[in-house]
Amino acid sequence: MASEVPTRAYRRLSVEQRRRQLLAASLELFAHRAPEEISLDDVAETAGVSRPLVYRYFPGGKQQLYEAALRSAADELEQCFAEPPEGPFTERLTRALDRYLTFVDEHDTGFSALLQGGSVVETSRTNAIVDGVRRAAAGHILLHLGAAQPGARLRMTVRTWISSVEAASLIWLDEGKVPARDELRDWLVEQFVVCLVVTAGRDEQTAEVIREALALEDAEGAVGGLLRRVLPVVGDAGHLL
């Protein structure tokens, strides 16, 4: 009796399921390699499908697939800063940054390629996707601050800090993820508080926002810890007042 050769069962997926499968495979590859180093054959192999099948779902080839994968990653990043409007602001920001830095940690090479640009597949559309993430993050943060109609100075403070978060994330990856992720997260939260305080000295709207935010903070929270560390450092400068 001839022995039976086991065959691999073909898994039929819906159009949306197959598309998600291909995007997941692409994101897995982009997380660890620059986009220009990845071919459609790589995506097909990672997804366990044929190259023609990849083309069926993404007839525009690698460029279309990259933009779709980037949009998927952007959707995830945009949601990092979504938090219920409850509790101290710094606690909400800490949770948001925790999700953001987890994404950075898990998609290190891809994250660097995404923000640093210079990829052969970079276009005005991909740049718009990245800028959309920044604007969405700023929108979430302004909502957390209760600023329904933020003025120019407050908007600039938030957007400048978001740029510093991106820069710090890239440097963190370049430095071998040192310091520890939790330490980086807490430092970025404290940095934002200081940025707001500095702007508050020149802008009444920001001053009102920071006063209301600080009223909800706990003495043992991020702001309390920041004050205990900073006040002894600047204490000797009292003669300047």
Give the low-confidence spans. 1-10
> Largest sheet, described in full?
none
CATH class category label of one domain: Mainly Alpha
Number of strands: 0
Q: What is the annotated CATH architecture of one domain?
A: Orthogonal Bundle
Using the CA coordinates, give the radius of gyration.
Answer: 23 Å
For the termini, the CA-CA separation is 97 Å
Globally, the shape reads: elongated
Query: Approximately how much beta-strand content do the residues carry?
Result: under 5%
- Write out the CATH superfamily name of one domain: Tetracycline Repressor, domain 2
Portion of residues within helices: 55-70%
| Count of alpha and pi helical runs | 11
Average pLDDT reading: 86
Task: List the helices and strands in order.
Answer: HHHHHHHHHHH
Helix/strand-derived category reads mainly alpha
Describe, in plain words, how this protein is organized in 3D.
The chain has 241 residues and is mostly helical. The protein has a domain at 73-232: Tetracycline Repressor, domain 2 (Orthogonal Bundle), CATH 1.10.357.10. The chain is 69% helix and 0% strand. It has eleven helices and no strands. Helix 5 packs across helix 9 (181-200) and helix 9 (181-200) packs across helix 10 (204-215). The chain is elongated. 25% of the residues are buried. Mean pLDDT is 86; it is low at 1-10.
